[in-house]
Amino acid sequence: MAEKKRDPGPSVKDDELYEKLRDEGNSKEKSARIANAAANSSRSDVGRSGGTSGSYEDWTVDELKDRAKELDISGYSDLKKDELIEKLRDH
């Protein structure tokens, strides 16, 4: 059976990278953001840019919950710290 290719839509600028990221289990939104950022510059620049907020492990539970709220993530209020970090990273 042939594998069906996903159509990321017209807003994704690097279909090949999008497909690779989706195959790795990333969400549609995250894959599109990364693929578009890579298309707007070089892929090595995107990997190097990184965040400046530090490791989630260094954040307090209240800070993690605030971040989840900012990202409109639901179902985080009863999560333990490690579960909350996983949910944030998988967003």
Mean pLDDT: 79
Kindly name the structural category.
Answer: mainly alpha
Global morphology:
elongated
Number of DSSP-assigned strands: 0
Spatial gap, N to C terminus: 31 Å
In short, what is this structure?
Residues 33-44 have a biased composition (Low complexity). The chain is mainly α.
Tell me what you see in this structure.
The chain is built from five helices and no strands. By secondary structure, the protein is an all-alpha fold. It folds into two domains: 34 residues, no CATH class; 33 residues, no CATH class. Helix 2 packs across helix 3.
Task: Supply database-style keywords.
91 residues, mainly alpha, 2 domains, 0% strand, SAP_dom_sf, Rho-like_N, DUF7218
SSE diagram, text form:
Elements (H helix, E strand, L loop, with lengths): L14 H9 L4 H13 L2 H7 L11 H10 L10 H10 L1
